[in-house]
Amino acid sequence: MNSLQLYRQLTKRLEEVSDCAQFESKCLLEHFLSLSLSDIYSEKEINDDLSELYIATEKRLNNIPLQYIVGKWEFMDCEFLLNKNVLIPRPETELLCECLADKITPESVVYDLCSGTGCVAISVQKLSGAKVYAFEKYDGAYEMLLKNITLNSCAVIPVKFDICKKPDLDIEKSDFILSNPPYIRSEDIASLQKEVLNEPLTALDGGNDGYLFYRAINQNFMPLLKNGGYLAVEISENQETEVINIFSSLNHIKTIKDYNGIKRVVVFRKG
User: pLDDT for 125-180, tens place per residue?
Assistant: First the structure.
């Protein structure tokens, strides 16, 4: 079998579960066989052991996300290690990293709440040089956060903490707070795509109404935001009005739409 035949075979199988089967086939061939796109189309003869590739294909056919299979993914031009303990970084979350980029400086103190992989904290720190604290509660996610800080050689400060509790930490106040919290209503979890259901429930479930973590941020962390500081949170579709109500003590600055026209990031200013 040559590389092009293998690519076509793989693509045909992945069409059962993916609308991007060609892209996913390319990713798997690159990861497991180190084949570039030019290698694939050169019809290179394949003599490698294909067992790992076929095992990975079966996982994908069972709705395991591609990102977990390859164990890493790019976000904001950085690479992040992934496993089932963390939410997969998504393109729309890049808006959260970019929305205050013109204001965050090397002198700024930034909190990233519900950090997970650390993709927001690490990207913002590398973009701005700011002092960034990444808050994460869960052991598995915290371990991945530490690995990604090391991988990306950045100065993010990890903090193992449950943001639903009042901080009793000896920590400086922040100029900026960023968060992509869980925001899906508990009753809606079961109706999510099968792929998404393989991601950690703790990173998806926003409580009965989807606003549990926004209320927690408002109650527990607004006292740690300096006067004149900014808050930016990612939201789901149709959550803008209630999120603005929750943070009614702040001034609503703007709401940013994602690439599909969905209101995705809400930005506030204190004072």
Answer: 999 999 999 999 999 999 999 999 999 999 999 999 999 999 887 889 999 999 99
Please, what sign has the CA dihedral across residues 185, 189, 190, 191?
positive
Please name the fold of domain 84-269: Rossmann fold (3.40.50)
For 30, residues 6+ apart whose C-beta sits below 8 A from its C-beta are 36
| Sign, Cα dihedral of 195, 198, 203, 209 | positive
**pLDDT score of 168:** 80
Using an 8 Å Cβ cutoff, are 168 and 220 in contact? no
Terminal-to-terminal C-alpha distance of the chain: 66
Q: What is the pLDDT of residues 196-240, one digit of tens each?
A: 999 999 999 999 999 999 999 999 999 999 999 999 999 999 999
Q: Give me the residue spans of the domains in the chain.
A: 3-62, 84-269
